[in-house]
Amino acid sequence: MIIEKRSELSTMLMTSRWFTSVALYILLTLPQAFASAELKTELKSEIAESIWDAANVGEEIALQAESFLVGVRGNVSAGLIDPFLFRIIEFNYRQRIDLSGVSGKEHFIQRVSALGEESQFALLTFLSSPLGKKYREPFVSDLSVNKKQMDMARRLPRLMNNQKHVEALAIMLEDHYFPVLEGQWGFMQRSVVFGIMAASLYENGEEASKTAVDQALDPLSENQAVALTQMNQMMLVNSVYDYRDVSVEEVKRLDEFLGTPAGAVFLEASNEAFALGITAVLEGLLVQLIDSVEQETTQEFQNDIRNNNSDKCLDLPWAKPFDGLSLVQYECNRSAGQSLKLVDAKLVSTVTGKCFSVMGDNWSSREKLFLVQSSCEHEDVAQFEALEAKKFQGAFQLREKNLLKCITITGKRDEDAVPVELKNCRSKKNQVFSLNSNVL
Prior knowledge:
By secondary structure, this protein is of the alpha+beta class. The protein has helices spanning 2-54, 57-77, 83-113, 117-128, 130-136, 145-159, 163-183, 185-204, 210-222, 224-242, 248-258, 261-294, and strands at 306-307, 312-315, 328-331, 340-343, 346-349, 355-361, 368-374, 384-388, 396-400, 405-408, 418-419, 421-424, 433-434. It contains twelve helices and 13 strands.
């Protein structure tokens, strides 16, 4: 009996020691395991960041962001967007465009970090190969969006005649890009909502109603197939141009790579990064528009700046507080938008309390320099000096100190709401203004 008890006790002790040993082992090794897991996760994130850099995804997003802006501008020509609203969008969009890369990079690294080491290194190997470098070349082109479109228009008829090349690209796009494009439909819908919200804030000073949004989205949904078909055609046309120096055999090898788990995740993550990045920019722009509408302003008229030639005044349309709103010429009517003053060399709206910055318009072959409303702390805020016009007693030119260009009335004498420009100072009447003591 005693022997049996001793046996049981021995078994219990041994079991206890076993549990103690296991517990001790766990306590000693768990921190190392966690540290090892953390190190592994950190290493995979570093590899993912290397893939981001090697693939030039940031440059691709910047190029696509520029293309998105080109598309928005196309709505101005079609009469769908007010030119003044577009300049507001463009000004604010360019201020935030770097945000697209930041937001997109974070998502991209998360997606690619989830890949196994083998897939990650497969990506790095592909991107460093001659084919991988060719694959990235279209997204780091030195051509601007406008120049690329002109060059593409010239070359495309000949490129489209290479049937084998076009067919290989079409197969690759159908296998890998078109499914991704369908996944971008949500981004297209968000873009439409942004347009509706921005227009409502600009025109009415309030957010668009759900009814207005639904009225815009319903026909979009009804024409989803048609819209995707048009986008597919555009994607093929762009690919024929972008991959003009990639052989048919190389296109087929690229098709095979994009069919691997690593290639599929890479393609999805790149496109998702763009959509999330541009969405972040648009959301930031809407916040700025909402904040502008809600800011307090005074409507008391103080003074105007009148042109000696047209007898029209510098005018901030409707005295709206939006950054990017163009300064124009308009019939002098003592409205709030014409209440302007020079304060510490800055031209200030006494109603909105904001200044004006120089904004270049590069959409035509000849660059134009406009004055658009901005915060007085903006990096490109214009600095003016009032120069007495020699040929016109008691009148002045307003010269921007850094550019040495003068505010110029560019429209006809009887034309209202034409944006003023900065041009070379020539003491002409359209650059001469009457300034009272309140302005100075």
